[in-house]
Amino acid sequence: MEELVMQDKQPTEDLKRSLGFGSAISIVIGTIIGSGIFFKQGSVLDSAGSSTMAILAWVFGGVITLTGGLTVAEIGAQMPYTGGLYVYIENIYGRILGFLAGWMQIIVYGPAIIASVAGFMSILMANFFGLGNEWRIPLAIITVGLIGLMNLLENKVGALFSVITTLGKLIPIAAIIIFGLFWGHQDAFGQTVREIHQSSGGFGVAVLATLFGYDGWILIANLGGEMKNPQKLLPKAIIFGITAVLIIYTLITVGILRFLPVATIHRLGENTTAYLATKAFGQIGGKLLSAGIIISMMGTLNGKMLTFPRIVYAMAKRQDIPFSKFLAYLSPKGKSPVTATIFIVVLAFIMMLFFDPDHLSDLCVFTVYCFYMLAFFGVFILRKRNKFAKRPFSTPFYPIVPIIAIAGGIFVLVSEIFNDPAGVILFIGIVIVGLPILYFVKKYYQKG
Q1: For the chain, which residues make up each domain, given as ranges?
Q2: pLDDT tens digit sequence for 265-299
Q3: Cα angle, residue 78 at apex, residues 76 and 84 outer, rounded to 5°
Q4: In the list 146, 230, 360, 382, which could disulfide-bond 80, CB 3.0-4.6 Å?
Q5: Which residues of 373-383 are buried (b: 16+ CB within 10 A; e: fewer)?
Q6: What is the per-residue pLDDT across 150-203, written as a single tens digit (0 to 9) for each?
Q7: What is the pTM for the complete model shown?
């Protein structure tokens, strides 16, 4: 059978191919497991209305994510280049949609998701150090700044930090699961929240909230140009990573609902995890558990800081964005996208100052799912376009899995449109603004 030959639209690869399977799966798990599972328990429960439906929301969100991961893994194995979703969409649909996919990630999704995770993390850090709410934004800015500085070094440094923090985050996760399951006295199923805000949104919004917790899996695709054998490693890292997180999230949710009654979770909201840590393990144990969760979130931030600048770099290499020569700069020794990393950090700072992290998280999921949907449909297009080509990886149970991914994506988009139409219009507007920018940038470089 003939080998699959992609259109020559990928950026020239100057980055180091030094990441193996251990680094790849650590980045997937480390990037996914961060603030969502620890800070979304209250909002998921409020929207779902009962503990049973809350658990189902986490499972349903995981299944949607897994089907999406299996679908995109087929595309990623065929296009193992730096840029991820940006490269996939461009190869399948052409320059304009590809550009918008990249623009969305570097202007809206990337900085917003970093700001959201940092915002949630700063809540726990303020509690940990006994500081007031006025310290939340400064703590978030300092942490993002320091992790950004670390990622100015070569990619092995960020990858090593991902491995360490992924191993470190297993401690608080195991503690919550074991303590909740074996020492909890509540019934994890069947508890009902009696006082729910009218705007809580129902099961659809609950699933949307869980998807923020699962989000981040596709970011490993941005490092396709830095993996040793991306055709094999990329699908494995995505599939094993998402599956592991789905199991972990379900167990954590059951553990929390076994230990705390739903009325307490409803009342505490974002502070549920900090309260559980202290209640279960005392002041000292609670501090240690909180420290573990903070380290977990730092690992998530690092994974995002490691991957998003690669999209900026890929777009700059193509001269798709203003100041491309500046943003495509790589450090001479480490071959890291230095100015692209600084660019993402600065935009994240702006997001932190002007947006609430909970609101940001939902809008991030909506925005990226608009382009996930294009990728899900893209599997059908590629199979038709390359009918007799040999694929490095094929989505199992095709076409059922991609159809489930598409149905889940429609579910996400419709839920958020009904839940927050104003926010949806704002974020879509920011994405569309990219079109005139692409036009003027291309005219500028043609003149040059």
Answers
A1: 14-447
A2: 888 776 777 777 777 777 777 787 778 878 878 88
A3: 35
A4: 230
A5: bbbbbbbeebb
A6: 878 766 676 677 777 777 777 878 888 888 888 877 776 767 765 554 445 678
A7: 0.77
pLDDT in tens, 386-401: 887 788 888 889 999 9
The CA-atom distances, in angstroms, between 427 and each of 305, 416, 432 are 21, 12, 9
What CA–CA distance (Å, rounded) separates 122 from 135?
A: 8
Pick the CATH number of 14-447 from 1.20.1740.10, 1.50.10.10, 2.40.110.20, 3.40.50.410: 1.20.1740.10
Please say whether the beta carbons of 220 and 71 come within 8 A.
Answer: no
Closest by Cα among 430, 337, 420 to 112: 430
CB 242 within 8 A of CB 62: yes
Cis-peptide into 80, omega within 30 deg: no
**399: DSSP letter:** T
15 HSE (CA, 13 A, CB side): 32
State the Cα–Cα distance between residues 388 and 380, nearest whole angstrom: 14
Asked if 141 contacts 119 with a C-beta cutoff of 8 angstroms, the reply is no
